[in-house]
Amino acid sequence: MTDTDRTALAALTDQAAIIDTLHRYTAGLDLNDADLLASSLTEDATVDLGPAMRRIGYDFPPLTPRETVVTSLIGAVGPLDSSHAISNVRAAVDGDTATVYAYAQAQHFKPGVGSDPAVTRHALMMNRYTATMRRDGAQWRIQHLDIANAWFDGDPAMLLGD
Hints:
Elements: H1 3-30, H2 34-39, E1 41-48, H3 50-55, H4 66-76, E2 81-94, E3 97-109, E4 123-136, E5 139-154
Parallel strand pairs: 1-5
Antiparallel strand pairs: 2-3, 3-4, 4-5
């Protein structure tokens, strides 16, 4: 294997691990799995949903550190019937840090009614994720995540337990 091949393989490995980090984050929310969500975050992680929530009329402070992020998000999103789909991931890796951009489309229904075709009350969001990630051994973890809303459909009150 040439040095060029090793460099290309390392870049692909990092890209896959970075995408896995985003999937662990969103799957933790969708599966109401605090451990899975925590595995995607550094201990000093900050998640700032403020830009997305202000766009739909709510003020929401940044969450930090990891324990607060996990407790707050699992408490709010975990019980919902939700699904997050990650796409358009772009990552710029610089040693053990990376700047990551992605889209996350997130559908939310009240607990237990997501698969009922008669239920129309929902909150569907297309958000832009901007993350700073840090390598932690073989895994990448989110150190800072800004979530901005591109568009919204439905009832924003769904996201706050109303």
